[in-house]
Amino acid sequence: MYATFVGAVLIVVGILGFFGLFADDAWDNGLHMAAGALGLLLAGAAPRAYAKWAGAAFTALAAWGFVVGDGGTILGLIPSYTGGNVLHLAVGLLGLGAAAASG
Prior knowledge:
By secondary structure, the protein is mainly alpha-helical. It has one domain. Helices cover about 75% and strands about 5% of the residues. The protein has helices at about 1-20, 25-40, 45-70, 80-100, and strands at about 75, 80. The protein has a two-stranded antiparallel sheet with strand order 1-2. Helix 2 runs antiparallel to helix 3 and helix 3 (about 45-70) runs antiparallel to helix 4. The two termini are about 15 Å apart.
């Protein structure tokens, strides 16, 4: 369920980001859309693995973003801003929780 729900949400967030509704850029929008597409692809075959790895990756990305702070960038590609960091943290912690609950 996590892979399907989060996959769909990330795709929508990525699309809306291209219309300027978030303070991110094309790299971040692309990351959201790719992670969302991967979630939808793996929802039937490997949902727990997706939840675990996406959870770990998004939690790490959020932590890195909070360290860099507003206005900084991660790897010179992904903008760091509080709203995005909170989204990444929520997606990450939900993924880790879903993986733990399904194991």
